[in-house]
Structure formats: C-alpha cells, structure tokens
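Notebook, bench 3.
Goal today: get a predicted structure for Ribose 5-phosphate isomerase B from Monoglobus pectinilyticus so we can plan the truncation constructs. The sequence was checked against the plasmid map this morning, with no discrepancies at the termini. Length recorded as 146 residues. Pasting the sequence as submitted so the record is complete.
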Amino acid sequence: MIAIGSDHGGVALKDTIKEYFDENGIEYKDYGTQKDVPADYPDIAEIVCGGILNGECSSGVLVCGTGIGMSIAANKIDGIRAAHVTDVFSAKMAKEHNDAQIICLGERITGPGLALEIVKAYFDSKHLGGRHSRRVEKIMALEKKQ
C-alpha cells in the first residue's frame, strides 16, 4: 500500500495522483489533508512517514506547494529517505540508486501531467542494490552519528 499526504497547498495534485491510483488499481491510504482543511506540512510528513515506518505502507508520496518543505520534514524522521523530485529521471534515480521510500512533489511547480509521469517512473522503478545499497547504508549511518 502507498501512503499519500499533502498540506492544503498540495491537495489538488494529491487528488490527481489518487485518481491515477484508482484508475490503475493501486492501493493507497490518504493521510490528509482534504480540500479546504488547513494543515502544516511537517504534521502530514510525520503521519505519512509513520505509516511507512510501522509497515502499514511500503512507500509514499508527499505534496505541498513546492515539495521542499515536505522533503525537509520527512528527512528529519529517523529511517526515512525522501526525495524532492521535479523530473522523471530524478524520480527513477531516487528509487534505483537511493532507495527513497517517499517522493515529494510541489503543486505550484509541477503540473499534473508531469507529476503523473514522475509518480509512474518512481513506482515502476526498483532499487538496484549492489554498490547502491552500500551507499544507502552510509546515508542511514549518518543519522546515528548525530
């Protein structure tokens, strides 16, 4: 299952992504927020990351106005690798090389057509392992040094 969440600045794009999931039989859990309900992106990032860390969901999509705030907030949570992506190639590399559990998108900077291409590229990709796993392990070890 995929976790999805947005603050109020990303609801429209989140809804577009949910429609894509529905049309393609992809299971997801919407962690909020909903139209016209204000929400702070750190709160939504924390909830979505919790759904991944507790095993309820395997990966996720976070959306805010730019994707930057969601990315920063999600990456503060121990055990999470979130990638702010604005193009298809970066989405693919986020999964293949960095084994990112979450991609972060910005409704104000990425149109719905491109966003769906990004989502598809990310979820169609698989972590390549090998030398990339060693690097992911080094990334995760950085959390333990703090």
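The first strand starts at residue 2 and ends at 6. The mean pLDDT is 96.
Flagging this for group meeting.
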